[in-house]
Amino acid sequence: MNQLKFKFSATLLLSSLFLLPHVQADELPNVIFVMADDLGIGDISPTNPECKIRTPNLQTMANEGITFLDAHSPSSVCTPTRYGVLTGRYNWRSRLARGVLSGTSRHLIPADRPTVAHLLHQSGYHNQMIGKWHLGWDWAKVPGSDGKEIDFTQPVKNGPDVNGFDGYYGHCGSLDMPPYVWVDTGKATAVPVRKEGVTKKQNSYGWYRKGPISPDFEIDNVLPHLFQKSIDHIKQRASTTDGKPFFLYLPLPAPHTPIVPVPPFKDASGINPYADFVMQVDHHMGQLMAAVKEAGIDDNTIIFFTSDNGCSPEANFGVLKKHGHDPSAGFRGHKADIYEGGHRVPLIVRWPDGIESGQTTNALACLTDFYATLRDITGQPAEDLGGEDSYSLLPVFKGEPSNRKSLISHSIGGSFSIREGDWKLCVSAGSGGWSSPREKTAKTKGLPSMQLFNLKSDRGERSNLVASNPDQAEYLMSLLEDEVTRGRCTQGGSVPNDRDVEFLPSSDE
């Protein structure tokens, strides 16, 4: 009877969200979006039954929510994925054609580009970013240094606050990219007084590039520090009487390098430091979920957990394999690649008031879909600008089919793939990233300039069917061209890309 009552209540709630043009702020769920860094789909038990790393807290989260088995980051590397999550737009439409930003890069998302934070702000949310930004912000520069030296005493401009966040606390790039400085809503918490770094020779797992580091920035303590900041924020917002729901965007720096698990997680996996670090991430997720419950806001808080791309070779695949562990769970490739291992990621969503527990789904999803999902939850209309590549996940939460039929993926080198149904076309001769064959090698070997796979019969992407199925390849190329040139993959008016997007094989192939 209780379960039947839950199903009815959840269905009624979600139906009302679809029908109402606007939802009262005090009825809206709090939203917490947690994104791990370089965590493979095979690295947690909910998305890999053969996982050899213990992740009990994420398994509990999955048991109490919905697990996506066919979810993808919009890129196989971090900066572009972060762009896609916040804007609901494929990253390659921006100025960033390939690669990632550094810790000193200028800001990527213009202030007038709609983001999830802007969207939620319109519905009365308080928005906070805590963690690894990696979308650039504008450091002040020392006069006369030709822009090469940062003045940490001056305010940071064009940070997350211009992209819809009320406040932020974090570091600019990856945790292996200097400067190692905490910035709290435009102000460095401490000025660096020295430089620090660890070479790969000194520590093959825990290395990070040498650069300025502040006295209050402790590399080994960054992960627990960010979770504690987040838990404190959750408690503070839960006790606030302003009636505003909150959005917490928590992009983690782990298990990306430097891989620095601390006791009691150090050596706890019996595998290697990477596995230890994944266990630590899982532990902190348990702490965060416990804090939500203790704050009395569990029922109407929606928590997303995912990763920005596949696992990195820095995890030491050889050691993991000896222990029977595959971070890509049988899919080909890894971080940076156009193959599935590069961009197929874990995605778990838990929302007691809105999602029936214990669900798994094979619905196609992309992390850009976060935008449209929150737009539907808040009852806001779709606009031509904002969420151009975003489909709502709310139907999937209710056990209904997804509206997403196609998916465009992008590699570190700028290679494209497009997927519809079981068919996937890679517009590349090789991996488009770091795994074999790299693009230059593939071209030298005279491999075909495109690769066509049927993922139902060949999840490992080993049999190139482009020669035997030219009509299918031609159809997918026309679909890719349409979605690139229209500036969107969703319905709506055409909008311009920020640059001329090259997606066809180059003539020398």
Rg, alpha carbons: 22 Å
Mind summarizing the main beta sheet? Answer: 10 strands, mixed
Tally the beta strands.
18
- Counting DSSP H or I runs of 4 or more residues, the number of helices is 12
Proportion of strand residues = 15-25%
> What structural category characterises the helix and strand content?
alpha/beta
The rough form would be described as globular
- The secondary-structure element order is HEHEEHHEEEEEEHEHEHHEEEHHEEEHEH
Average predicted local confidence, pLDDT: 94
Low-confidence spans: pLDDT under 50, at least 5 residues? 1-21
**What is the percent of helical residues?**
25-40%
Measure the end-to-end span. 63 Å
Enumerate the strands of the largest sheet in spatial order, edge to edge or round the barrel.
Answer: 7-6-5-4-10-1-11-12-2-13
